[in-house]
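Changelog note: in this version the structure field was regenerated for every chain. One regenerated record is shown below for reference.
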Amino acid sequence: MSATALPLAPPQSVPALPQSQWPRPWLCTREQYEKLLAAGFFRETQYQLVRGEIIDMGKEGPRHFSVVDLAVEVLRGVFGPGFFVRNAGPLGFGNSQPEPDVAVVRGSRLDYLNAHPATALLAVEVAETSLSYDTTTKAELYASAGIADSWVLDLVGRQLHVFRDPQLIPTLEIATYQTHRTLGPTDTVSPLAAPNATVRVADLLP
């Protein structure tokens, strides 16, 4: 006796939830976010506040950590007195508190004992698995903060993406960079805030 497979009944359609009942991200102010950090939340991985949303940035691997240290060392050699090259320090502006892997700000570390800087002269992200996010969402965020010079170091493609000329788009209520250059290991770049200095892209790559 053979068994005959019966056809499966077509799935019943499920009524769509109204938008008011959709899953929503965890919204947070900068003040609330700082209190959560002080209370010891977010110790297992890296989180950042982006436009009022707490974003899980994942864990930092040894390669990423080493390249960030390398970029800090290179840029400290480029920028002299009057500049502070920060390693993964927060920036605080609007409803965001991102942490560029490297940020160059005016002054010294003692100038930021009571508040995070609101902007930077140069922000650098090191992308091992986050290239798409760093060149879109993060780039728009830094443009909105008025950061004139934003770099994304692509470890996989061995390239440096240089974003400049931030401009506000009033209809979208965001800012974007009007200039995007992609540089290879044999190329050089001069930071806007240190135009007489030259950085070899190869010196930023392992």
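Spot check on this record: Residues 1-11 have pLDDT under 50 and may be disordered. The helical segments are 30-38, 62-78, 131-135, 137-144.
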